Amino acid sequence: QVQLVESGGGLVQAGGSLRLSCAASGRTFSIYAMGWFRLAPGKEREFVGGINRSGTSTYYADSVKGRFSISRENGKKMGYLQMNSLKPEDTAVYYCAAKAAVNIPTRAIEYEYWGQGTQVTVSS
Questions:
Q1: Of 41, 37, 11, residue with least CA distance to 121
Q2: Mean pLDDT of 58-73
Q3: CA–CA distance, 101 with 110 (Å, rounded to integer)
């Protein structure tokens, strides 16, 4: 069982940066791949990127590649989403998710645990 809590969202101007954190509870955090998703009004939930359980591999959606970076610290049971060069179209509620897996799942349905989400608003 894993509980996830996101933090770090807020309002930022276009071109700015934000760092989201995902705090996990549970004793076996290191067996879980982590994914980040976002949900914008009127749109479907979108996979942003993910990181494997050891932190040695990441995968990003084309829409954020080169601007966003995902990392994790298993000893602290923390995951991070560093967002740079933010655009108004990045405005959404961002969620972290976890699944006990070797690879990095990219579909929301594959993830077992979800945080409550944190709002990111990028103004133009």
A1: 11
A2: 98
A3: 10
Q: What confidence tier does 68 reach under pLDDT thresholds 50, 70, 90? A: very high
Q: Shortest CA distance to 101 belongs to which of 47, 52, 57, 56? A: 52
CA distance linking residue 74 with residue 48, whole number of Å:
20
- Annotate 71-108 with DSSP letters as a single string: EEEGGGTEEEEEE-S--GGG-EEEEEEEEE-SS---SG
Q: Give the per-residue pLDDT at 27.
A: 74
The residues facing 92 across adjacent strands are: 120
* Residues 121, 107: Cα–Cα separation, whole Å: 24
Strands 46-51 and 58-60, bridge-based pairing: antiparallel
Question: What is the rounded average pLDDT for all residues in the chain?
Answer: 96
Tell me the pLDDT tens digit for each residue of 75-104. 999 999 999 999 999 999 999 999 999 999
Contact 73, 54 (CB under 8 A): no
